[in-house]
Design brief:
Chain lengths: 192, 192
């Protein structure tokens, strides 16, 4: 397993058919994931297309994550946590100022992803709503109101994704207070 | 009022402070809206940033629609229908093939938006999840399952949005069967 240190991020290539395992080694830690077609990074993971084709906002085992060009990018083949979010964007300087005005501003998952993805020719504006592994965002179906709650993930929980095309992946150990139950922990990952 | 004919779309400029009124003249008709910063079209409307800052997936009177750079783009100042969607992407050839395999394929809101936005230098890949005015997509908060139901909008229902920056707007009369209660009607709009 490779380790992503707290409040940091990486980018990596994932070939079609390879599997990416994302593990929460200590529990209650979110990992933001974004994905791009390695041959044309204008094709990018899309929460809206995924909600269209999977007909749910709560993705888990068996669901596929789709691109803005209506192609499946990743299939969830293992999911021990069963609680993830695909509604909210990576934390960034502006979200720190907005939600934590009394705390130091951090560049967040957005800044970490932007730096990691730059060598692949991916601009900050091309970072979409992320698939937020282990993030716990209950939605009230009647009012639409949402809340960011501590993750329900336990130490060792993991999500395994199979690549359906050659991909560039961005992956973080999330930097925001509320998303991670108030403390910042590492994320482990492995390509197989 | 200007009219968008059934299953078509337009693009227009909206200056900061101007208001865009979108009216459903016959009822049960969806209109997909996308927005770009007129001075730099890499800044684009974002459902994820909007859900972040507004803390709800059900946007209505008083809510703001935010950009991928964390700036408010539009404020909802009138909302007589009180039911809209910001989860799903514009219908396109692939969604017609997927959901309506026995019906003729249409280029959908996606194709209509792509053509209308091209003169502004906006590529098809830059069309994000749209704000789907009058679209009725109930979500089961427990399971996450969603459904596309007929709009609840009545003839004459309207949504009025105030521009918070100079914008390029894409706007359609939606082309998909389920989203519009099975028939395709016009959408009226006015800039003031």
């Amino acid at each position: 397993m490779n380790r992503i240190e707290p409040r940091s991020g990486v980018a990596l290539k994932l070939a079609k058919g390879q599997k990416l395992t994302v593990c929460d080694p200590m529990g209650q830690q979110v990992s933001d994931l974004v994905a791009y077609n390695a041959d044309d990074v204008r094709e990018v993971i899309s929460n809206g297309r995924t909600f269209d084709y999977e007909e749910t906002i709560q993705l888990g085992w068996g669901n596929r994550l789709w691109s803005n060009r209506s192609n499946p990018m990743l299939t969830i083949v293992t999911d021990t946590a069963q609680r993830h979010d695909f509604l909210l964007t990576p934390c960034c300087e502006e979200t720190f100022r907005h939600f934590y005005p009394d705390k130091p501003v951090h560049r967040g998952c957005f800044g970490n992803l932007a730096e990691a993805l730059e060598p692949y020719g991916i601009e900050p504006e091309s970072i979409p709503t992320a698939f937020n592994i282990f993030m716990n965002v209950p939605v009230d179906g009647k009012s639409g109101l949402l809340a960011v709650k501590p993750p329900t993930s336990k130490p060792g929980d993991k999500l395994e994704l199979r690549a359906e095309m050659d991909l560039v992946i961005g992956l973080t150990a999330c930097s925001a207070y509320d998303s991670n139950g108030g403390s910042f922990k590492p994320i482990d990952y492995e390509v197989s």
